[in-house]
Amino acid sequence: MLAPAYQKLKDNLSKSIDPKRILDNPLQTLAYGTDASFYRLIPKIVILAHNETEIIEIIKHAKILDIALTFRAAGTSLSGQAITDSVLVVATHGWKNFELLENNQKIKLEPGIVGARANTFLAPHGLKIGPDPASIGAAMIGGIVANNASGMCCGTAQNSYQTIADIRIVLNDGTILDTANQDSVAAFKNNQKGLIQEIESLRDTIKNDETLYHFIKNKFKIKNTTGYSINALVDYQDPIEIIKHLMVGSEGTLAFISNVTFKTVIDEKYKSCSLIIFNTIQDACNATILLKSSPVAAVELLDRESIRSVEFDPDAPTYFKTLPESACALLVECRDNDLEVIHQKQEQIRLQIQSIPTYTDYEFTRDPKQYYFNWKARKGLLPTVGGLRKNGTSVIIEDVAFPLPQLADACLALKDLFKKYEYHDAVLFGHALEGNLHFVFSQDFSNQTEVDRYEKLMAELADLVVNQFNGSLKAEHGTGRNMAPFVEKEWGTAAYEIMKRIKNIFDPHNKINPDVLINPDPKAHLKNLKPMPESHLIVDKCMECGFCEPHCVSEGLTLSPRQRIVIAREISRLEETNEDPTRLAEIQKDVTYQLDETCATDGLCALACPVNIDTGKFVKTWRANELKSGNKKVAAYIGSHMAGTTAILRVGLKMVSFFHSIFGTKIMTALSNCSHFISFGKIPKWIPEMPKGAHKINTKN
To answer: 4Fe-4S ferredoxin-type domain location, by residue (predicted)?
Structure first.
């Protein structure tokens, strides 16, 4: 039962938005309220908004009722940015429009377009968008911009912040700002003078504080997505440009993004790479420093544990299994539109690092099989840990960044930290050229001892990154709920106060995605942890990442594969704990249609799943297990009495055909529809194409 304010919001919005897209039943709010993080909040209402007019209506009615809103696209975010216990507004279906501009030098994209899909629009022109996160096959433009996504090859030069050309946003009062439209900008400056003055005041405050000014400048010399993009206040003078860039990395806490225009970048035709093995992490990091000034497109670091995770792959070199524990690999890539130039680049790279010994000889390759394996070794690290983890545990992936000269020492310090807290499955990898390291490990949140262990790890991690190495606690994944308690630790009081003022300028009542990015609770990262109960062997390894969703034919009609697994897990949990029989009954009421009947069971989801889960196979098993006992008995009887069953069906079809010949098609159709209605759908409808009963086959001849 909805609280009065939420019920009123639903009633008010139902006048302008299709009520079928305003969801409040327990099954759908749980399914849509799940993101890729290890946090869980269940929204009171989920609204599937289809256009900007609806967004404005939602914002205005929610403001009147003092209700918080969270805007979301794909929900592939890893740190809890896309969840809420209030109202979740999903902007996916209906937000697929794009437009190529200025001779393809720019592309305007709505928030519901998957990043990889955007690149397919640009591929015929030899172009792409700058951000290239590993989740680009599932992450949507809204989230890519809101989290200032970067990736393996874009570095800091081609991330969302650097390549944004324009943005269209809706503020907390329904005001629209379209930075590509001069009339919109002029109207905004005239109607939002107070907001403009606040932005200019922040800009001047920083520029008049030389220490703070240079501190901010230095912090963004490496990848940094901790807190707001306050580099906008030092990089730009014009308040509109500042607002535009503040929206990048704001994690949905300042405004709704209706569309964004990116400056496109060249997608080189030819690519080659080499997996170079070094004797130690120190050697690999020293080579990275030298490679910084060479013509490389990407330099990815893989520690010994990362290499071990792929050493049994059929395409892996045999020497992988004999590498020393100190070994470390760099995956180095170069690109160009000219084959001769790419060979020259390869030679320059070789000369650049010739002073550093390697464990084996190495070659650059364009051979598709070897090229694919090299990148599979890098990209397969998340699923490796995810697939090997103990059932019931969560996959944690975090990313930090360090000044490049300190990368080697930071790697060793992180490894020591994992050993101290016995995270033996932790793997360390990342975008070495940017000093950006990812680490993945499994975490059990089912008991307080394990939660305490995680708390100690995070506290020491924050101290190590900030105080020991002057790094970034978040490099490209967004702050989220997991790092919000540590933002002030990294930035200090003065810069953190600037961030709090930014939030207050755009959202004075703290009703737009509250408690994300700015959160005064020092233990916020330890609350609302997502349960991961065992449900079925086929799906227990699911990380709820959402990579499957673009491949599912029923996503948008009912549930996606991720959502089906979420529901199955919750049913298992509620059956096990017996904590809320009413909620269990409400979920089970809708589960047959939502989870079972609308799943195509085609296995397409497994193609994109990092841990190769075929949710269709799981649904087939579900169907077999969840049939009511009465139906099972009927099925068993039919299976053992096929001759009698087919005889009855032949007679039935002959009788239907006989009555059709008497009544005619019109009357027969009317009678059929009436019977179907009276029986609540149990008697199937008749159609003229229904066959007559066949003659019994004589098996004696």
So the answer is: 533-562
Which pLDDT band, with edges at 50, 70 and 90, does 71 fall under? very high
Can you give the residue ranges of every domain in the chain? 268-476, 533-626, 633-701
| Mean confidence (pLDDT) of the chain | 92
Helix axes 52-64, 4-13, angle to 10 degrees: 150
Q: Which residues contact 441 (CB under 8 A, 6 or more apart)?
A: 385, 395, 396, 418, 423, 425, 426, 427
Rounded to whole angstroms, the Cα distance separating 375 from 132 reads 14
C-alpha 255/C-alpha 243 separation (Å) is 11
**Is 8 within 8 Å of 65 (Cβ atoms)?**
yes
Q: Which residue has the tokens 């360090």?
A: 402
CATH class, 268-476 region: alpha beta
Report strand pairing: 69-72 vs 87-90.
parallel
Mean pLDDT value across residues 595-622: 93
| pTM of the predicted protein model | 0.89
513 neighbors 81 (Cβ within 8 angstroms): yes
H or E segment at 54?
A: helix 52-64
Tokens 């929206």 belong to: 247
Q: How far apart are CA 358 and CA 319, in angstroms?
A: 14
Which one has a higher pLDDT value, 627 or 359? 359
Buried-exposed string 405-427: b where 16+ CB fall within 10 A, e elsewhere: ebbbebbebbbebbeebebebbb
Do the beta carbons of residue 271 and residue 262 sit within 8 Å?
Answer: no
